[in-house]
Amino acid sequence: MSLTGKTVLVTGSTSGIGLGIARRLAQAGAAVLLNGFGDANAAIADVARYGGKVDHHPADMSKPEQIREMIRYAQDTFGGVDILVNNAGIQHVAAVEEFPVERWDAIIAINLSAVFHASRLVLPGMRQRGWGRIINIASVHGLVGSVHKAAYVAAKHGVIGLTKVLALETATTQITCNAICPGWVLTPLVQQQIDDRAAHDGDVARARQELLAEKQPSLDFVTPNQLGELALFLCSEAASQVRGAAWNIDGGWLAQ
Ligand code: NAD
């Protein structure tokens, strides 16, 4: 399918899943506004290989005013956002009693509140143009819990609730809102958890296998490319009645 003439904003797309989704949508012809920390120029060069317009905005997704500036920038530079992929996210692993309060606040701000802010700011333009897609990268942790991930699990459950409300409020329009719920994807966010597990003996390969074996029956990672393909499907006409879904792609994690 072609996304020529559409503009996509992927939050947190200088790395991992966001970058994978940005690549796939650019390949389908979309103009892309990237966002995220780190090497913006490398991400722009990566996505620009597909030939379309690519830019980056450095908004910190924990700051509502910066999100507003980014959406304004998208309006001025691209004419608006047709496809919003709410992907930026962080993780912190600790028991509730030891969970640092500032980490809780940051995770709720970036993983949940930013989804609300970006969505509310792009919706008026989508309504005006009569078409839109909001794709929220939630997680299997939006549907089930795991120990030591209180803030992440709470935020991702919140994202799935917000997805349902957005889907209902746009139900009679050509705007859809859905969540994608990945299992383990080998990105820097997960590599950090593998490295922490391997810290005591340095055996990263074993830590990686143990991480998969605990939760993901396929014993294999989901890839950013596969998530890009699912996001592209959700943009298609065939998916126009997929509304408010929380679509797991998780190597069997939630089948247990
Ligand atoms: P990642 O660490 O590779 O990428 C995160 C991206 O978010 C980066 O571009 C980073 O710069 C950006 N980011 C972080 N804080 C930001 C902020 N305050 N403002 C703007 N950008 C910010 O992580 P990932 O694994 O690709 O995760 C992407 C999304 O997928 C997250 O929402 C995560 O919860 C979700 N997810 C990941 C997995 C997994 O196994 N990796 C599984 C399920 C869901």
Ligand kinds: nicotinamide-adenine-dinucleotide
Level-1 CATH class name of the largest domain:
Alpha Beta
End-to-end C-alpha gap: 34 Å
Strands side by side in the biggest sheet:
3-2-1-4-5-6-7
Could you tell me the strand content as a percent range?
5-15%
- Give the radius of gyration: 18 Å
Uncertain spans: none
Describe this structure in words.
The protein is an alpha/beta fold and 256 residues long. The chain contains eight helices and seven strands. Strand 4 (83-86), helix 4 (101-129) and strand 5 form a beta-alpha-beta unit. The two termini are 34 Å apart. Nicotinamide-adenine-dinucleotide (NAD) is lined by residues 12-18, 35-38, 60-62, 87-90, 110-111, 137, 139, 182, 184-185, 187-190.
What labels describe this entry?
256 residues, alpha/beta, Rossmann fold, 2 domains, 7-stranded parallel β-sheet, 8 helices, binds nicotinamide-adenine-dinucleotide
Give a quick precis of the structure.
The protein has helices spanning 16-27, 40-48, 64-78, 101-129, 150-169, 188-198, 204-215, 224-235, and strands spanning 7-10, 31-35, 54-57, 83-86, 132-137, 175-182, 246-249. By secondary structure, the protein is α/β, with parallel strands linked by helices.
Layout of SSEs?
Blueprint: E1 7-10, H1 16-27, E2 31-35, H2 40-48, E3 54-57, H3 64-78, E4 83-86, H4 101-129, E5 132-137, H5 150-169, E6 175-182, H6 188-198, H7 204-215, H8 224-235, E7 246-249
Parallel strand pairs: 1-2, 1-4, 2-3, 4-5, 5-6, 6-7
Helix pairs in contact: 1-2, 1-8, 3-4, 4-5, 6-7
The structure holds nicotinamide-adenine-dinucleotide.
The site of nicotinamide-adenine-dinucleotide has 29 residues, from helix 1, helix 4 and helix 6.
